[in-house]
Amino acid sequence: MDLPPRPVPFDFHGVSMIKCFTDNWDNIQNFKARTDDILIAAYPKAGTTWVSYILDLLYFGQTCPERQVSVPLHERVPFLEISRPSLSTGKDLADLLPTTPRLIKTHLPVQFIPKSFWEQNSRIVYMARNAKDNAVSYFHFGHMNNVLPDPGEWTTFLTNFMDGKMVFGSWYDHVNSWWEKKQTYSNLHYMFYEDLIEDFGREMEKLCPFLGLSPSVEEKERVSALSAFDRMKQNKMTNFSTVQSMNQKVSAFMRKGIVGDWKNHFTVAQNERFDEDYKQKMKNPLLKFRCEV
Ligand code: A3P
């Protein structure tokens, strides 16, 4: 089967983007958020799917068990900005969500978030992952997902990552500007992938009060077990095996799910160059990432 050509990124209001995330722009910007909506925001490959599934289990794991086995996660938690030929747009899927709350996923940098989310004071859960593992995961994802530009060789990809020439823009700008938003918008919970890997229970103790939930011990254990990497990798509703644009023979969507895989990709010289550049871009001493746990 002939594959469609890979898209070419372009500058969109200062952020590198591709058409399938900007084609539906006016509708996205006019999206009518509700007060009880929950927006799950993250830079691509920071663990968006993991958080989406955790929230879906917390809210609907018990009340809608049939959805868990019949509706893929990406339909339960629509991707707001996506629009692909002959498929429903993420915005339309979000509009049609039958649940309360509606869980909605986005990779948009904070300045592109539809204003109704701020006006409605909707809850937002932001997931961040250390730059090195995030870059490695994005590289492999680019190879397996035909919707994205060709990532090319690792060396070139890493340079592009450092230069912010990635779809959804610079990792550095993304994590920093969402962090800054947290200082003025109190309904934003900023989470780290590494923290969740290190101590899932501890992170649930912070997340659930933010969501206004108080699940039982058994319920928390259930969420923890079902959202474990191996379980999600086996689960057809969470492993993206139903998505045509992804060639899981090239690289699995649920690839490794660890902290520190960057050590298998970065050369010593690349690591030194990356660290030097990182210091220049990440000046806020309060925003700290861990590249190992
Ligand atoms: P790797 O490619 O490093 O394995 P996103 O959902 O934002 O696209 O992020 C995908 C990354 O999150 C992948 O990273 C994937 O394996 C990881 N991930 C997904 N579910 C996970 C889980 N339950 N535990 C740990 N990592 C998970």
From TrEMBL:
Keywords: Catecholamine metabolism, Cytoplasm, Transferase. Residues 36-283 form the Sulfotransferase domain. It comes from the Eukaryota. Belongs to the sulfotransferase 1 family. GO terms for molecular function: sulfotransferase activity. PANTHER family: SULFOTRANSFERASE SULT. It is an enzyme of class 2 (transferase). Its main location: cytoplasm. The keyword Cytoplasm applies. Its EC number is 2.8.2.-. It holds the Pfam family Sulfotransfer_1. This is Sulfotransferase. Coiled coil: none annotated. It is found in: Cytoplasm. One of its GO terms (biological process) is xenobiotic metabolic process. GO terms for cellular component: cytoplasm.
